[in-house]
Specification:
about 150 residues; Thiol Ester Dehydrase, Chain A; about 40% strand; six-stranded antiparallel sheet; alpha+beta
Length: about 150
């Protein structure tokens, strides 16, 4: 996999997202779309997409929608509520939307659809805007340090 190209499409390297193979299709004006073609190792014992993979897809889709309004910023998930409506199979499309934002917070929603355009899951999420890493080690970022307060 071309990790440099992947980092450019999402704006930052996200190893777990790379492992799942998410493909960013839309990143603009508070809207996002990510395509996902699950691999056999992403399935559960019922041979459908694992709920954790679906939740990650929803989380990233909402984060991308939030970031699309302020691409210079990063976001971290504060809370997320997910509802599963049907088993997710085959190629999936996740669509996200920034519903409202303040100077520090983003309120979002996203849905996952199967190849027949059936909704499989839906989530709402709240994200906090944070300064992005410009250069240097990920371990030097304040989010990766232990607070002693």
């Amino acid at each position: 996999m071309n990790f440099e190209k992947y980092a450019l499409s999402f704006g930052v390297e996200i190893p777990f997202v790379q492992l799942l193979g998410f493909e960013l299709m839309l990143f603009e004006n508070g809207h996002s779309q990510i395509n996902y073609n699950p691999k056999p190792e992403h399935l559960n014992s019922f041979n459908v997409v694992h709920g954790g993979a679906s939740m990650t897809l929803l989380d990233v889709t909402m984060a991308v929608a939030a970031r699309s309004a302020s691409p210079e910023m990063g976001v971290v998930t504060i809370e997320m509520k997910t509802s599963f409506m049907r088993a997710a199979k085959g190629p999936l499309v996740a669509k996200g939307k920034l519903i409202h934002r303040t100077s520090t917070m983003a309120f979002t929603e996203a849905s996952v659809f199967d190849a027949e355009d059936n909704i499989c899951s839906h989530a709402t999420g709240t994200f906090k805007y944070v300064k992005r890493l410009v250069t240097g080690s990920k371990s030097s970022h304040p989010l990766n340090t232990i607070s002693t307060d």
